[in-house]
Amino acid sequence: MIDPALAQLRAIGDDFVLPFQLEASGLRGRFVRLDSAAERILGRHDYPDRAAVLLGEAIALTATLSATVKFSGKFTLQAQSQGQGAAVRTLVADVDTGGHLRGYVNYDADAIADLPRDASLARTFGGGYLAFTVERDDSEGRYQGIVALEGETLADSVHHYFRQSEQIPTALRLACGRDLDGRWRAAAILLQRVPASGGEPMAGSAADAPRPDPETWHEDDGYMRAIALLATLAQDELLAATDPPERLLYQLFHEDGVRIWEPTRLLGDCACAPNKFHDLLARLPRSEVEDCKVDGLVSVTCEFCGKTEHFDDTALAAIFEADGPD
Q1: Do residues 204 and 311 share a domain?
Q2: Which of 15, 89, 281, 316 is the most buried (most CB within 10 A)?
Q3: Structural domain boundaries, residue 307
Q4: To 5 degrees, how large is the angle CA 199–CA 203–CA 207?
Q5: Beta-ladder partners of 142
Q6: Short-list 312, 323, 325, 319, CA closest to 279
Q7: What is the DSSP string of 142-201?
Q8: How far apart are CA 19 and CA 243, in angstroms?
Q9: What is the pLDDT at residue 185?
């Protein structure tokens, strides 16, 4: 009889978060692969490859980190430049508890074209910060973690965050690229030594849980072994659709023993609310909305999915009539 987790993984397809644990070392992990979801998110925009790869890594990272937190609501990752003339100004990705994943990147086309091939993340953004936000629908409120955009890659900044802010030993690999058919794919593997109390990383609920001093992480044999094994994983192996995820995990960590748990489906959908643009305009002063008219129309575009709606005088009157004249 097939394992229930494997049966569900097969039913989900190629867009998933797969939780797992290394039995010998006790490390917890998340494995994310994005096939159709990555293609939908990246393919709907004409991004230059450098911007698309960065966004692909960000959406895979967002799906991975969100799966370490128990919440009902939305998890958001935002990288924001604070420098002048930055090649990439803003990078945003979010996912809700329904698995709806989306993202966009705002960039300077000339500046990003001039970047050298080996440009670091810090140079790409010209400085700035990386923020992780958990917005809960229930009464537990909002949690946010922020770290400077440092290091060569997005993964480097995440490592820095967990080392300095959460003090949770973390190993991370991110990948994004095109397959032989030119379709975008993205993937991530995260391993963590979760606090002994059972508290979750990034949830803000385990502040009193004992955490190892980062200066002692090298003494954790299981953690150091996991880092070494992840370093042997090539990008094309991480992205390969032909290699079942449980086989890849076994090839990497078979000496520790790998146990997988129930996977979660991911969808590359923006999930725009039906009245999203209507409600957005209704929150603004009518005079400001009128100033945005071009050829008699106010046009609003969703940065995530590219959806655009146009509002003429009749539509605007319907929006603002309840509030009376501005």
Answers
A1: no
A2: 15
A3: 276-320
A4: 55
A5: 135
A6: 319
A7: EEEEEEE--SSSHHHHHHHHIIIII---EEEEEEEEE-TTS-EEEEEEEEE---TT-PPT
A8: 17
A9: 96
Q: What is the DSSP letter of 215?
A: G
CA 116 from centroid of its chain's CA atoms: 25
The C-alpha atoms of residue 227 and residue 22 are separated, in whole angstroms, by: 13
CB-based contact 249:187 (threshold 8 Å): no
Tens of pLDDT along 116-126?
A: 988 999 999 99
User: Rounded to whole angstroms, how far apart are CA atoms 323 and 326?
Assistant: 8
Residue 126: count other Cβ atoms within 10 Å of its Cβ: 17
Contact 41, 55 (CB under 8 A): yes
HEC profile for 109-141? HHHHHHCCCCCCHHHHHCCEEEEEEEEECCCCC
**Length in residues, the chain:** 326
In this structure, what is the dihedral angle of CA atoms 162, 304, 81, 168, given to the nearest 10 degrees? 0
Q: What single letter denotes the amino acid at residue 78?
A: Q
Q: Answer yes or no: do 167 and 130 share one domain.
A: yes
**Domain shared by 173 and 236, yes or no:** yes
Residue with tokens 């995530």, as numbered in its chain: 304
Does 9 share its domain with 136? yes
- Token reading at 220: 């954790």
Sign of CA dihedral 154, 156, 162, 164: negative
CB-based burial, 214-242: b 16+ in 10 Å, e otherwise: eeebeebebbebbbebbeebeeeebbbee
CA 196 remoteness from chain centre: 26
What letter does residue 242 receive in the DSSP assignment? T
